[in-house]
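re: ur question from yesterday

yeah so i grabbed the chain u mentioned. its 246 aa long if i counted rite. heres the sequnce exactly as i have it in my notes:
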Amino acid sequence: MLLLLLGCTKQVSWQVQPTASYALPSFEVSVVAGERGCKRVADELASTLSARPGVRVRPDAPVRLEVVKCDGDVDTHVELESVYPGLVYSTAVYSEQRRYEMRGWANAELVVASEGAPTVRLTGGAERRERSPWTNSADLEIPRALSILDDVRRDLAYDLADQVAPLPATIRRTLYADPEPGTARQLHNQAVDAERDGDLSKALQLAREAYGANPTAASMRYIEQLQDHARRVGYALVDPDTIPSR
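ran it thru and got these structure tokens back, copy pasting raw so excuse formatting
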């Protein structure tokens, strides 16, 4: 666990293991492109999974991962701004500035098949946006669309890999130094301690008590972070109203 002092607060961090969208029956897998247009995504997925701890990619593996229904493109939009001279009544254009905005996106399905288990279909997606600074019209250079599309395909492969073999995720939280007993800050610290211990229901109860004692944007954000943490690790949160009082 990492501990950093920052004035009257300190940062703590630890790792948790997210729950896979589908628990593979074996981490020995083969990766194939079910369609010609999916070859690049399948290649990226095989490379990504090969780097995951415990995963072995080989052609004759008992679990087959087939990438299908691949789609993706790059949308480009160019904005134009006209700059006029300082004369009040002039309508002549002095210069033009332009900038581009690009949106690259990609989607695919992953079909998971293995002997003795039902076939499962998972959906993945990725998106990237890029905006240039304002430049003179003559200097505007729209970046290579293929470059951003390749980046999005890698992101898509990473998303699909996370659904079957997720990497550990780092949780970072703020603790208050020497809070007064019974205050919102002390309740917050207790909530973080419960979260690190894995009792997310108790952590959520304490976080809500901290918000009730001092309803700030930061305390509400922590409640939302706790709920997101629970979703990522597959923790079934208990309604705080059903938790016995401390």
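noticed a couple things. The first strand starts at residue 2 and ends at 6. also The chain has five helices and nine strands.
anyway ttyl
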